[in-house]
UniProtKB/TrEMBL annotation, chains A, B:
Signal peptide: none annotated. The lineage of its organism: Bacteria, Pseudomonadati, Bacteroidota, Bacteroidia, Marinilabiliales. One of its GO terms (biological process) is D-serine biosynthetic process. Its cofactor is pyridoxal 5'-phosphate. It comes from the Bacteria. Keywords: Lyase, Pyridoxal phosphate. The keyword Protease does not apply. Residues 17-304 form the Tryptophan synthase beta chain-like PALP domain. One of its GO terms (molecular function) is L-serine ammonia-lyase activity. This is Pyridoxal-phosphate dependent enzyme. Transmembrane segments: none annotated. InterPro entries: TrpB-like_PALP, TrpB-like_PALP_sf. The keyword Membrane does not apply. Belongs to the serine/threonine dehydratase family.
């Protein structure tokens, strides 16, 4: 699989610009004081469907030819990618077939249904998800849209940094959370193209640290078991995202759930915005590695804001 | 007491502009669809100290002559006004003496202390609060700054609508919550000056509906007992704010706590921003009186975002 180029990201932006929100960049004097550096937050929690995932899904859906598109798109996911794909498909007026484990949270099922996605439930194993999706794709002729390990997805996610570096043109460092690596890959391509001197870091929960281990060992090591509240970051890197990350990313840091919750609380309390645990990992690593970030201009992508208000971690 | 004029609000804005945040106006396609009108939210939950109160406090503090100011300022409050006055005083480099009931929530005490306020505790009765404040003022020579029934406070709060109507110049209706009436009074002066055709409405919780009853009976009726989660709106109108409101305000609506919580949840879930219950009352009345607002451009001031995350109402 080809690594996307910066021009793919520019093309993606032209393709999706009218469908997405141009999200704001916020900062907090109180957080800067605590962190000892200038932190700029790109608020993808305000993106449509409440997460950056809508950028990649939109690019994938609108990249399809009319002939292919009319048969719909499909994926297996219980998270933001499912909702994002459902809404992107709705925007194009085509079907979205979403395979979800039968034990997925009600709130996630409701979101996908709310955006018009057609859900097929399966047993909660990866094997069952893949088998069920294969059946659905075979029956419908729909096109599979991968949550991260796909060129169009990476290019779509890379449009976030494109906006960010235009809104804040003096960033020394840019940090994203890493799960499957779509956001990190896209961000790294944009950031290094626009400013070869910028550092691109990734933030990962200790309880799902396959990217950290893969990066350090220079070998793709999928995660075996996961244990973290950062439920958007449970997946492992794919072959394509791993390749981009090894080429572009300067370092990967990890944070514990306690540190993640503390950072999340700081964002909620000081900035009055709602972010999901996965979004708080980047601030957690800034706060625990202050010497690395001291006095620098640090850009953090807040990846999403979808939390179940009835089950908060505070 | 004189009713503030629009020129007082312009003066206030010149005085405080460099100390306050110019807060954003946000909107949500999902909420517009549910409400059946176009709602624009002025985000004073992002204001310093997390509430519009900082505008009035700043104006009061920076209106004082150097000679008077150097003896400090004082108030009795356990809410956002106390924190706002403490920070405004800190900005001017003077003391803030805050009288608080000894049973005030820890989180409020912490906020006031964090901004450098000097707290004197008293018994939790209005009499004790007023007596204690008198003693403190006598001893220190500090100037009393009222939370709402004071010209400088009203003029300061009126700067919020000044920004709002510049950011969104086609509002048909503007709605604020009403407690003591400082924000409502200031908003009404600005709004009616800039656009005599605009409607100015107030939103009040059923469980503290003195403004509603006073407005309808055209007679100032202080609240006797209160019972609402909108803890920023428990106070009664003052003589000055009542006078402004009778002159400028078009109508006052009330909402129940159940309706307030539902509106608050909608804001949190759909907009991914944190607002306190008092801020959600305006959206609650829009949702329960849809025929009044149908297809109009409705401006809502989200008054603040200070909630105790350990004790949410969801």
């Amino acid at each position: 699989m080809d690594i996307p180029k910066f021009s793919d990201i520019e093309d993606a932006y032209m393709r999706i610009e009218k469908y997405i929100h141009f999200t704001p960049v916020l900062s907090s004097a109180a957080i800067n004081q605590i962190a000892g550096c200038n932190v700029f937050f790109k608020c993808e929690n305000f993106q449509k469907v409440g997460a950056f995932k809508y950028r990649g899904a939109c690019n994938a859906v609108f990249s399809l030819s009319d002939e292919v598109a009319q048969k719909g798109v499909g994926t297996h996911s219980s998270g933001n990618h499912a909702a994002a794909l459902a809404l992107a498909a709705k925007q194009r007026g085509i079907a979205a077939y979403i395979v979800m484990p039968e034990n997925a949270p009600e709130i996630k099922k409701k979101a996908v249904k709310g955006y018009g996605g057609q859900i097929t439930f399966c047993k909660p194993t990866l094997q069952a998800r893949e088998d069920t999706l294969s059946e659905v794709l075979l029956k419908t002729g729909a096109t599979m849209v991968h949550p991260y390990n796909q060129k169009e997805i990476i290019a779509g996610q890379g449009t976030c940094a494109l906006e960010f570096m235009q809104q804040q043109d003096d960033l020394d460092i840019i940090i994203t959370p890493v799960g499957g690596g779509g956001l990190l890959s896209g961000t790294s391509i944009t950031a290094k193209y626009l400013n070869p001197d910028i550092k691109v870091f990734a933030a990962e929960p200790e309880g799902a640290d396959d990217a950290y281990r893969s990066f350090k060992s220079q070998e793709l090591i999928p995660v075996q078991t996961t244990n973290t509240i950062a439920d958007g970051l449970l997946t492992s890197l794919g072959e394509l995202t791993f390749k981009v990350i090894m080429k572009n990313v300067d370092d990967i840091y990890t944070a514990s759930d306690v540190e993640i919750i503390e950072a999340m609380r700081l964002i909620w309390e000081r900035m009055k915005i709602i972010v999901e645990p996965s979004s708080a990992v980047a601030l957690a690593i800034v706060l625990k590695n202050k010497e690395v970030f001291k006095d620098r201009n640090v850009g953090i992508i807040l990846s999403g804001g979808n939390v179940d208000l009835a089950h908060l971690h505070f």
